[in-house]
Each structure stands twice: as structure tokens, then as C-alpha cells.
Amino acid sequence: MDRLPLALAADDERDHARDPRKLRISIAATNPCHVWDLAVELHRLGGLGAYYSGYPKWKLRQSGGMPLRSHSLRTLVTYAMYEKIPERFRPSNQTLFRWQDDGFDRWVARVLNPADFHHGIPGQCREAFRRAKDLGIRTILNHATGPAENLAALLKPEYERVGLPPAGSGGYDAGYLDRVEEESRLADYHCCASSIVRGQLTERGVQEGSVLVLPYGADPAVWHSTGRKSVRRVNDSLKILFAGQLSLRKGLRFLLTALETADRPDWSLDCAGPVLDETRKDRDAYRGRSPVRYLGPLAQADLATRMRESDVLVLPSLEEGFGLVVVQALACGLPCIVSSAVGAKDLIRHRENGSIFTSTDSVSLAEELEYWAGNPRPVSGVWSWREPANRLLAWSEKMLTATHDT
């Protein structure tokens, strides 16, 4: 398993020395997910060829002079329909997002400029990868999660437990899965954020040597420990934070059960993020004495403040390709307790900057909460996007050299 220390290897701690022949990495994504922050940092380091966005330029935080191209009409229409039209009157989510992604992919294929590598997101890069092959560009399928089939299989029992159809089942029809399978065949390499996803990919036939594990970072302008509250005393109330969408996938019920097991009225739990109705049964069943507050979605700055005011972050997910809130919390000095199904466990040194407990084991989770209640301390480290970007540049130049030598 790739275990990434507070700083990466020595060669990655400093800005990667640029080759005289400028390396060009292009990236395409409909939405500004993790690859956007990576692209911004690549641009600062001089390694970004172009970024192709499905979002309009004015909605993106840019780095000066960034080579950015946007094709946003379908994305704007999709989200307008998704957010403003009642579900019974709009096309299915599958139809909407497939229409968005298909159009974006065809546009990228038409305008794709020469580069050394091109990163695409599963489900939206088949035509772009075909065009990249024609141009001699090496293709990289950049995974935010593991294969869709893994997600569906992991979550099926949870949805059956509450009497609901599996979430996202409409997005994983045969057409979508066939498209992603073809994108995988067209990919020269794969990039993912954790050893968990790497394992899922190799189980499905991807060669381990073609997978780069590249963890996420956090923007230090937002996620930092400056102004963090003083370390709590052992007898003070333990302030627990959950951050993310409150869905069955996030394992909220195991955290609530852990609080019932601990039976600590002096502890409290704040849940920041949209609350999905599918968790109502578990929320209503909670009988613990620790107060629980559901705060709803928070702006990034407000969430960062909440992290600096908390004592521990808990992410008890049943499936999590990485878990961006973990690296954000670590950047804010907040220890993180994560389940063994969370990819960001690669960053956790057990009982040093957080804890790892066995997924679905509420008793084990309660024990880790007890540990941090009795051993309060902040954590430290550098968690910006600079290290992942340098790591990607070093790996990319290594792959280019290997290709030229063969």
C-alpha cells in the first residue's frame, strides 16, 4: 500500500526541476472536481498544456494566464434543469448527465491540442481519448472513485436495509459501463488518489504498473491551522465533526451507533453537509446522549473555521475513493478518524494524526473516539496541492523517458 508521509519523497518536496523541453499535460472535466485544483498547481509549475472545462470561465477561480478553454452550455442547462425543475417534470439524472458528458467529450475531441499527456474523467472522455491517440498523446483515465460496479455492490445491502433502490443505479446502465470500459482500454495509464482505488482497478484487470496513486491536496488559502483554538483539556467536551453529504454511503449510522455505545453526554457531534432523506430512518433511530446537530451545507471558509474549532473529524464511509475532507481537516490541524474503506487512510498514521477503524465496526470507532478524548492534540503537516503536482510532473517525465528509451 502506498503510504504518503507528511512530505513526499525528497525529490517531490521541492518544485520539480523542469526539463528544457517543456512538458505539457492537458486535463478535461465537465465540473471543477479534484483535477481543477491539480491543474491550477500544474500551471504554476509550468507543466499545464491546457484545461478543458464544462464550467463557464467566470465560475472558476483562475491562476493568471492559465490556458483555459470552456464549453459550458450543456452543463448550465443540465444544472438548471436539475436544480430548478421538479424531478417528475425533468429527464432522468442519467439522461441529463449523459447528455452533458457526451457533448462535452465530443467538443474536447474537436478542439484538443497537442500535448504529452491528456487526463480524462470516466464517462466523459471516450471521443477525446480516440482523438488523443490520433495525435500521439498519451491518455490517462483519472479516477475520483473506484469502478462503478464496485460502488453499486458495496452499497446494495445498505439500500436494501432501508427499503430503497440502490443509489445511482440509473447511472450505471449497460451503455455507461460499456463506455467506461472502452475508455479504460483506450487509456495508457490510470491515475487515482488512493491505494484502495488502485486495488479495485487491478482487480478488474488494470496492470498495477500503469496506475499512479496521487493523493489530493488542500488550498492553504482556505484550509490552514492559523487561528486554531487552544488544545482542549481531557475533561472538556469532545467536539466531533462530520463533513460531507449525509447519505447511506457515508456511514452515518455507524457514527451514531458509536455515540450510543460510548454514552458520553459531554461529547457533541456537528454534521456539516446536505442531509439526504435516505438517512432519515437512521437519524430518527438515534438514542444516544451526545447532542447531534445537522448544520446543512457550509461554505468552504465556514467549514474550515468549524474544523479549527473541533477536536476530531470522523469519516465512517462504506466507500470513499479518497475523502477530500480528510486532507482539508489535516491542513486545519484536526485529527481524523476514518474507516478502513476511506482512501485517505493512506495519509493517516494511526493515533498520531488520526485513527483508522474497521469499516462498519461501531465499537472500534467508539474506542478511537475515547482515545482522542483522552489524548487531545492538534496535528501538523504540509497538505497543499504543490506536492501532488510535483509528484505528477516527476512521474510524467519518467514515463516519457521510458517511452523514448523503448
Strand segment tally: 13
Strand content: 5-15%
Rg over CA atoms = 21 Å
**First CA to last CA: what distance?**
28 Å
Mean pLDDT: 90
Largest sheet: 7 strands, parallel
- Helix fraction bin: 25-40%
Q: Which runs of at least 5 residues are low in confidence (pLDDT < 50)?
A: 1-14, 16-20
Question: How do the strands of the widest beta sheet line up side by side?
Answer: 3-2-1-4-5-6-7
Tell me the structural class.
Answer: alpha/beta
Report the oligomer. Answer: single chain
The global form is: globular
Helix-strand pattern: HEHEEHHEHEHHEHEEHEHEHEHEEHH
H/I helix tally? 14
Overview of this structure, please?
It contains 14 helices and 13 strands. The chain is an alpha/beta fold and 406 residues long. Strands 3-2-1-4-5-6-7 form a seven-stranded parallel β-sheet, sandwiched between helices. A six-stranded parallel β-sheet has the order 10-9-8-11-12-13, sandwiched between helices. Helix 8 links the parallel strand 6 and strand 7. Helix 5 runs parallel beside helix 7 and helix 9 crosses helix 13. The radius of gyration is 21 Å and the shape is globular. It starts with 9 loop residues before the first helix and ends with a helix.
